[in-house]
Amino acid sequence: MGLNLAQKIIKDHLVSGQMTPGKEISIRIDQTLTQDSTGTMAYLQFEAIGIPRVKTKKSVAYIDHNTLQAGFENADDHKYIQTVASKHGIYFSRPGNGICHQVQLERFGVPGMTLLGSDSHTPTGGGIGMLAIGAGGLDVAVAMGGGPYYLTMPRVCRVNLKGKLKPWVSAKDIILEVLRILSVKGGVGKVIEYAGEGIKTLTVPERATITNMGAELGATTSIFPSDEVTKEFLKAQEREKDWVELKPDTDAVYDEEIEIDLDKLEPLAAQPHMPDNVAKVKDIGKIKVDQVAIGSCTNSSFMDMMKVARILKGKTVKPEVSLVIAPGSKQVLTMLAENGALADMVAAGARILESACGPCIGMGQAPSSNAVSLRTFNRNFEGRSGTASAKVYLVSPEVAAVSAVTGVLTSPEEFGEAPSVSMPSRFLINDNMVVPPAPEGAGIEVVRGPNIKPFPINSRLADKVSGKALIKVGDNITTDHIMPSNAKLLPFRSNIPYLSEFCLTPCDPEFPKRARENGGGFIISGSNYGQGSSREHAALAPLQLGVKGVVAKSFARIHMDNLVNSGIIPMTFANEADYDSIESGDELVLDNARQQIKGGSELIIRNVTKNRNITVKVSLSERQVAMVLAGGLLNYTREQNT
Ligand code: MIC
Ligand code: SF4
Description:
Structural class: alpha/beta
CATH superfamily of the largest domain: Aconitase, domain 3
Bound molecules: alpha-methylisocitric acid, iron/sulfur cluster
Number of helices: 21
Radius of gyration: 23 Å
Distance between the termini: 44 Å
CATH class of the largest domain: Alpha Beta
Number of strands: 27
CATH topology of the largest domain: Aconitase, domain 3
Oligomer: single chain
Number of domains: 3
Mean pLDDT: 97
């Protein structure tokens, strides 16, 4: 029986386990990436592991999220990352060089390799045929030290693309369509593998838009084959030598198949407040727009920007609309500057932001109250923009640019002829903003500012785990709810005690206080708890507040791993109806917790207040059980080494 592409790369990198879907495997990691808002924690943990030099083929530390520098905190963290990277053999992409995923694709991604990144949009690398996976910082730290990455062997879903996109319809519409079909939970436990005649019509940056936003499906990753199109892209980046052909076997077997007819697709938008709340732009209607933001790791490639520049050329942005544009990398920005497209954008009234995440992570450009904001980004979770009442729609660069000119949500076919932009045969190459590491033993001193505070480490799991149900939340709670990130909080990613004061506050402003007063307890949730970001702060902040376990209908992949890494017990209701039987404030007890967790997948929680037992499941591998018993990955690693 033939292998599909995901299985081939996994097989080539397999360290342990059987490639049976649902079973735990571990794989060798070739490349890692970190960004600054998860990076400080990842490097503190790397230092705690105590390995002097990274053992990967290439590890890169990016600064792209936290670049406002409203106080000393950001700048201090950047210095820490720069020096710690230099000391341990890690390349450093300076602030201004661009968004990690865009730069990694342009300059470092290699088809067939594995990439582990401390950012949930690491699957962008699947656009170039990498098996690129997002993870918590601690998992990336372990991979930098040469340790394998553990994951559940995924099922593989084939998305068969037929035909060719019509003018004005773009790669963003393809992934929005996949989200419409599968939902934000539909990719959990799966790799989404793209195939079919239609893939030949998509350039690498377009493929990367699709694999990037595959993160919103909850998928382990998404991947395209490495073909002539990939070769063209690598050649244009002067990296043809990195190209290898990669494709599934002709008799490859898939667990699931979806077909999308590209000719039939129309411009789409994800409506507030979920990326899978997708409708046709023309069906949503001509709602008045207050803000348009173009950029982010989903849609900031040179070609996306050129389409935007062509649409804006000779026009003026509607007076009621604020248009901001952040080109994805220094390469993109320089090319736009050189060919005059930047001048067209500025002349039309666009406000140009630096090549960084910016408004996508709420670092500035919070919309006005009740505003409608069209964004080419990948997440429109409530409040993520920095304005709780804002209504964010996720759209293609074409829809965004056209609507900035008309002032209302506009399906671009009405605008005239679509701009035709093809991939350049040569990108502008200048890697002067990537600082190579110092030679081994160069005596680099790691600079640590006062913003860096010790992070919490759990203790061995007690025999009896008890506490109150501190909060009860619904479905699809994102890590932006659990550990909000905005211009005020992002500078404190190395200060968990401070951050914990804001933990789950979008759901209940009293949560941190209640958790502290009760000496910790449990979180009760509906399905897909922890979707979105890879930030392990969404586990560390609850840990700081004494949270011992989360009982949910289901979990998002990366967040569940982060909970286990922190020694917080992730439990799912054996019978979902039991969710209704727990109320916030109920006293819960897990008797013989160690024994119960060791003993099998079903545990009994006593609800003392309701005088009733609830059966919950812990779907953990043997290794994860050992981690929970030890009080998290760091304690587990120490126990293993003594
Ligand atoms: C995001 O898009 O939510 C982020 C900010 O890039 C996060 C990482 C973080 O929280 O620092 C992600 O996607 O993992
Ligand atoms: Fe940055 Fe936004 Fe991409 Fe996250 S999704 S890496 S915040 S651009």
